[in-house]
Structure formats: structure tokens, C-alpha cells
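Hello again,

I reread your note about wanting to compare the complex against the isolated chains. To keep things tidy I'm splitting this into two emails, and this first one only covers the full assembly. Below are the input lines as submitted, including protein chains and any nucleic acid or small-molecule components. They are followed by the predicted structure of everything together. The single-chain runs will come separately.
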Amino acid sequence: MPYLGGEETVRELRRALSNPHIQTDHLRYRNTIHRVIRLMSQGVDVSGLFSEMVKACATGDIVQKKLVYVFLCSYASVNPELSLLVINTLRKDCSDPNPMVRSLALRNMCNLRLPGLCEYVEQPLTAGLKDKAACVRRVAVLGWAKIHALLPNTEIDAAVVNELYGLLRDPDPVVMVNCLRALEEILEEEGGVAINKPIAHHLLNRLKECDVWGQSEVLSVLQRYRPRSEDELFDILSLLDPALLSHHVPIMAATLRLFLSLCSMLPAVCVSALERARGPLLAAAGSSSRELRYAALCHIQLLLRSEPGLMGEHYKRFYCGYAEPPYIKQSKIQVLVELVNDDNVAVVLDELKGYCTDVNTETSQAAINAIGSIGRSYDDRCLGILTGLLELKQEHITSAVLQTLRDLVWVSPQYGDAVCSALEKWEDQLQDTQGRGALLWLLGVYGDRLSGAPYILEDFIDGVRSEVSAEVKTELLTATLRVFLSRPAETQDMMGRLLQHCIEEELDMCVRDQALLYYRLLHCGIEDVRRVLQCGRRSDLSLGPLIGRPPEPISQWASIFNTLEPLMLGASSNGFQFGNGPELEKALNMLSFPCTRVWFLKTLCLFVVIFQAYVMCPVPRCSPESLQVALQLVNIQTLAFTAPNKLPWKMYLYTHSSHTLTPHSSTTPPNTLILAEVLQFTML
Amino acid sequence: MIHSLFLVNSSGDIFLEKHWKSVVSRSVCDYFFEAQERASEPENVPPVIPTPHHYLISVLRHRIYFVAVIQSEVPPLFVIEFLHRVVDTFQDYFGVCTEAAIKDNVVVVYELLEEMLDNGFPLATESNILKELIKPPTILRTVVNTITGSTNVGEQLPTGQLSVVPWRRTGVKYTNNEAYFDVVEEIDAIIDKSGSTITAEIQGVIDACVKLTGMPDLTLSFMNPRLLDDVSFHPCVRFKRWEAERILSFIPPDGNFRLLSYHVSSQNLHPLRSTSLVAIPVYVKHNITFREGSSQGRFELTLGPKQTMGKGVEAVLVNSQLPRGVLNTNLNPSQGTYTFDPVTKLLTWDVGKINPQKLPSLKGSMSLQAGASKPDENPTINIQFKIQQSALSGLKVNRLDMYGEKYKPFKGIKYMTKAGKFQVRT
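Full-complex prediction:
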């Protein structure tokens, strides 16, 4: 009970602190201060004792000083006037013969965090930079960074900056690293420390002397350096080579990142660096710390984007342990999907099958999704597993399986028959919105082959009044209309009921509008309905080669290696769902990322087309790659293209409109996405 | 780099906070609490949580979350490693790292945190150097301090920071010169239903405790250095010499440190390694069945030693998460004690030592919820054990030599194998 009786205790402590008997007794005085700090850590407001504590600061006892400083730094901002009293003592301490006292005073002077006191601090800081003792210089150097953070608008004196640059050559390695850190903060607006050849070489030569934290920071600063010649580059690389095998994962990761940025023009060197770092990375992925394991796994996912073969033979190291937290299991599952090849597909599928019944629903869904994505490139064993899972009759599993099946037949329509036979005996009830959406989609598409489809739909239509999700309702409308096209006799009556309900009673505007649209469409005649509903939404088999996503160049992700971003990607990439509405925006944002083929195709279908035109033009005689590069120069990006020897050869392009560039901005709303499909009918 | 640190216990209270730059309001932890609430188990909280202005990177150890608040882009591995170092330091100082221990020693904790980071940058993290700055509290010292009024803070500058070899202080003196090395191996394995190994790997470390006078230069050689190819060293080891001669040559830090860590995996395709596949030291015979429509299930488990190079398997502890449908168990252990928690469905069997003549077994029946369908998955069995005086990979130290000093040190080496994440699927 920290807050109760707080006032009473504070009063008692004040009495004790100002009691001359206690003040003269070294030990009792310190014990009282101990109690103050203890109370402070419990959340009691002891700021009232500030003036008593200021007095306690004037002592020769270094422990007492430390304790008082801890107190003062926490409460200085509440008592700016009284803090002025401390400055005097602190400045006196700054000229103490004991370097410990000097560094302590200097550090705490900057930690008071009072912008008003900065003018008093600058002089001792300047003196501190020239101090004989390394520990004082260490503190003084960082002190300047603190002053800069306190007064962001005032420039730090150029002379001080120069002095700091000079201190990069200080004999003490910690002073050197602190200098780097301070300069990075002070010169942030100019892009950090200027790394020229002498500084870079100096840092590299002294790398060994720094502690692990310092090393990893020096390595990250060195990324800005560009060696002049190839010889210099290789000298640097061979100097750094042992660090790739470092015992400390942070150093290994920082070194690898530096390698990748230095060798961006030498892909072969990058690949061999990745191979070298494979061992330590795998070890980190099996380390006893969960957090480290997760971070390593996220980075391995990055590596696999370019070098899918890198971990091939080690796929068993990514099997999930029983008691591992779901976030690790999910990223392991994602890695496993990348590592599947002809030899291990059977074993990996067996393993994944075990995860499908995991207690954690997200993990089991991730495993089911994984089986689905393996199914895109490998035989129908996957389909057997998925349909087998339907028999477990577990709500969340069924829902995930249905979604996976929907995505799978979207890409590989040849599985249609198998899916139909699995759905033939469907008689379950589903609560989950996404699962029901997927079921309806499948019913709509395979309505002609599933004998029971109209009856399942009828159940849905009978319950439409109690349906809350708009997503399910729109999906239901489309599915009913599709089934109507193939089996009008069975469906006509219920479709009528559904349309009537959605137009007259429905409150959600999206659903109502869609119902109205279908109603009017039906007035136009059956042929038009068929054209609208059954064209365009089919997947395109000729995009086949995109299945095996081509390995990305390493430079694509080298800049985010060893940053927080891969961990964020890992967290967001699972459970991403496409629907209508706001997801479209998300989908558009995702286009700037390299996206998978399914994503791409799905996204294309979601676009609202404002304007469409066909342009015929002669084809330039050049390879697809050079065409791509040329288009990039004028800000047109390539989304996807088919294999070069396919006919017709296809390429999808996009760009964003902007007001300044397009003269017709009155007709195109700002930020319109312009998509183009390039078809080529002759071989180059 | 690291802005602030919050220590949060498993019930979601912040019991300690420390700010190195400006003060960040406690409300930033609300994002963390949200994630904590969503997670079903304490360890399910994701290690990195983005918030509008900060990132929260957390590490869970000893049921305490160490939550670092980050404002700008940082290497996540760096922060995670640092947080672990903080926990290790606390453990080193207080023996245990619990909420109670931290609260009892709150003043030392503040002092330590103050020394370990300055302006958010790691400063002194080597336990050697920290211990010179701040003396760890011991019961004896607390008593002595109270009587004599001496301090728990070193009054001198740590000399180690000024020596030419950054990890070793100058002028070390001992009356007994000793160097001890512990080879500790942890085996992680997954064994499938039929008893064949799905994956097995060994994580090994050599921890050293070196108390030698002066500036000794040590060399350590192995009988079978080929075993070690996936290895990482303490910065003191001369890497060039290792690459050329496969000998560890180093000037050791003073006190306790981790000399090297290594990794041996069962599926290494290296031709020379085919003989040293990871041996599995114990086997499990199990028969766990549920019958459809019956409210009884059978449970039988027998443990036995396998490939242990003649050493006994000790401190064996088996636990298993039984399916939700199990109401209670009626089991009979041939040795040791077993407990079953009907709420969490966790079965624990403390076996003790395995006697190869009389294998320990646990047999009996489980009662199931009436009318519930048969559980679709059999439980996984986790096993912990220890094997003294043996390193499972077969790693052996050949000899240890000392140069640079005149005296004769006392040398010792100990081997131990432990189970890491060792699980058997049934």
C-alpha cells in the first residue's frame, strides 16, 4: 500500500533528515536517504524533501552523493528554483581531485534536465572534454548530446563539434564510441557524423578494442562510408570477416548488414557473406531466449526472400516445439513454407499437419494457410490434408480450411473437382464471418457442380434477418446470383426473397446498393448478368511462372536488415484479409511492397475502374528487363510479368497520377492509380 | 537508444521504472498491457510492440517483463541482448531475479541501471567491472556494513577500464591460482511417435572461472576439435590461431566468463561428421490410448537410458499437458512422485535417477469427461534430465597450458549434459 500513510512518512523523514544528530552520524544519515529512495521507487511523492536532500548532497561520502543524485534527478523538473542550489555543489564537485566524483557530478548535472540550467553546465562540460581521466571525458562527451536534446533549437558551438571530432582519436575506446554517439545526435540534421577515409580507417582499426555494444554501433555508423577502390573494400571485408561468426548476435547482424551495404555492387560476395553468417543465425534461431529466437527468425525470413536455398537442408531446425509461444510458431511455419522442395515436401506437410490442431487458433490457422500455399506448387496431397481437417468439425479449423480452399482454387482451378467433392456432404453450421464468406464464395463458383448448393444457400437466406455482417450479406448476394445463373429453377424463389429483403429492409448501404445493382442488372437480361458475374474474376493461368516468386535482389531488403522493420513485417503479414471497402486502401498501399501472385490478382479485381482505354503501339525491340528499367525512369513501376517465352507475353504496370505532372488533373482525382496491361503477341 | 525501462510483473503492475533521457509517461505501457491481456499465457506477449510514438521491446524472464521504450530506429537484436544482460546482472548480484529481490535491493538496482546505461547507451556491462563499481549485497556484507559503516560502492576507479587488454584489469593477485572450465551441453530434440528422432541438436558452452595472478596467456586444446565448426568465441580468443591450428589461445578475463559457445546438429552433411551424430540419451516407451465412447483412457510410460556412455541419468522430470477432456488420472509410479492438476491438465512426474536395472514407469488410467468425444491428439511429453561428467557430443579437452607467468596454477574441468527442449510426441 504505497500511497497510504505517505504524508506521515514524509513528515517523519523530513524530521530525520534535518535532525543534526542524524546528520553527524554518517551511517544513520545514509540509511535515512536509503529510505527516501525506497519510498520514491514505490511511487510515494517525496518531492517535498527536495531542500533537505539538496543539503545532504554536500558530503564527502561518494555513496551518499550517488543516492542523493538519483533523488535530485527525478525531482529536479518539479522544483526548478531549488535546483539552482544544487548546481553550486555540483560545480564544486566538478573540480574535485577524485575523478569518480568529477564524472558523477558532471553526469548528474546533465541529467537534471532543466533547460534553464544549461548555461551553468556548459563551462564544466568544456573543461571535462580535456580532463585527464577517461571516465570524465566519457561523461562529458555524452553530456553535450544531452544539452543538445534539452535545447534543440540552439546550435552547439562549432568549436565543441570540432573538439568532439578530435576526441574520436581518444586513446580510450569508450570515449571514442561515446563521441560517435554524441556527434550522431548533435549532427542529426546534417545526416550524422561525416565519415571520411581517415575516420573510417581509424574506427576499423580500433574496432577490436571496443566492447560489444560499441562495436555494433561503430559498425552501423560505418555503413555510410563508401570505399574508394576495390582493394580498400576487400581490405575492409577481410578485417571484418571474423565478426560474421561472432558470439554476440547483435555484432554478427551489424557486420552482416555492413557487408551487404558495402558489397551492394558485388552480389557474389553478399551471398558468401550470407552463407558465412548462416551458422550463427541458425544458432540464434535456436537460442534459449524466446525474444532472440523470434528476432532471428524474422531476419531469416528476409534472407530467404533472396536466397531460398540458403537454409534448405536445415529445414528441421524450424520445426516447432510444443511449448513455444504462438508468435515463434507462426514465423517458423512461414519459414518452413519457404524451405519446401521436392525432397522434403512430404515430411514438411506431415509436420504442418500436426500444427493444424494446435490449441492456439491463430497458429492452427497459420498452419492451414501454409498447407494451402504449398498446395499451389505441389501435388494434391495438400488437398487431402485440408479436406481431412474438415472432418474434425472444429469451428476455427473448418473456417480456416474454407478460406484456404477458396484461395487455392482461385489460383489453381484444377483443384475444383476435389473441393466440390469435399463440400458435397456439407452440413455444418459456421459462426465465423470470414469462414462463412469463403463458404459462400465457393458455393457461388461451384454452384453448378454441387448438388446441395441451393439448399445451403436457402438456410443462409432464411437466416438473413439475424445476420449482422455486411460482408457475409454481400457475399451471399453474389453467390445466390451465380447459382441462379446455372440453376434458375431451384434458386429463383429464394433469390427473389433475398433481393426483396436487402432492398427494402436492409440498413447497410453497401449491401442495399449491391442488391439494387443486381436487381437492375437482372432487368437488363440474363446475358448481361452472365457477362458481369462470370468474366474478369477468373484467375489467369498464364501467370503461372509467378508462382515461384523470383528471388529478390539482396539490395531490396539490405537496408532494413537488423532494424525493427522485419519484426513488424513478421507480425503483420499473417492474418491479412481482403474484403471490400477499407481493405482496398490497404491493398493499394501494399502494392509498393513485393506482393505474392495471389495478392496481386485479387487486388486487381478489387479496383474501381474509372476510365479504361486500349492503346495499340509498336513494340520496342528490347528485352523485358531493359524495358522495365526504362519505364522505371519515368516513374512507371512493373507489378508482374509472365515468363519471357510465353505468348501472349503479359506485363502489368502501374503509376500514380499527380497534379503537377498530368495536365488533365481535373478529370482524374488526385492519387489515382493508373494500371496498364501490356500484351505482346509476337516473339522478340 | 534505450529511452526508458519499465519492469512489469505478471499481474500487470509496473514496479520499477528508470528513464535515461526525458521522462516517458507510464501510460505508454498501456499498449503493452493490452497485448498482455490478449495473450493467453505470459510468454505469448510479442517481443516488439509498436505504439504511435515509441516501440516497446520486452523480454520475459523469471516472470518479470523488462520493457524497454525505444524512440528511434535501433537494431532489435541489440536491445534484446542488452535486456538479457541486465537480467543476468541482477541475477549475478542478487542470486535470484524476482520481484521481491528487486524491490529489496531497489537502491542497488538504480545504481546498476545508472552505470549500465548513460543517455540510453550501454556503458559498463561487464560483470567484472560493475562489481568494482558497485559491490554486490551479501548478507555478511550487509551486516558488516551496518557495524562498520563502510559502503557498498567501490571508492576507486575500476582499473580494468584502463588496462591494455580491455577485458582484464591489471594487477590481479590471488593466493590460490586456479582455472576451472565447465563444458555444459544442452540437448534439444523432438522424438516422434515411433521413437525415431525428428530433430536433435546440441547447444554447448564452455564457461570458465579463472582466478590467476598477473597477465597469464592460456592455450586450451581439444582431443577432437573437428566437432566444433559452428562456434563463437569470447572476444579474448585469438581467432587466427583457432583457424590455423584449432587451438584456443587467449588472455582470460578475470573471474567468470563464457569462453565459447558451439552447436552440433544431427543433420550436418559434413562427411567427417557422420560418426558424431547427436546421440539421444534416454528413450521413452509410451502407450496412451483413448477409446471412443468410453470414459476411461489408458496411460503407460516407461523411461530408459540409451547411449549415455555409461553415465547415470539424474534429476529426471517428466511433464505433459494432457488433453482438455481428461478429468482426472489414477496413476501408479514405480518410483518418484507424480502430480496432476485437474485445472491446467498438467501432469508432472518427478522421477529422480534412472536405474538401468529397474526402469521407472508410470501406469494407470485416466478418467474422461462423460459423453465428450475422444481427444483428437495425444499429448506431448517434455523431459528434463542431467548427466554428470559427460558431454554428449563427445567433446573432450586435451590440455591446458599457461604462459607468461611463473607459478603453477590449479586446473579443473567438468562436463555436464542437460536436456533443453526435449520432447517426445505420442
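For quick reference: The beta strands of chain A are 637-641, 649-656, 673-680.

B.
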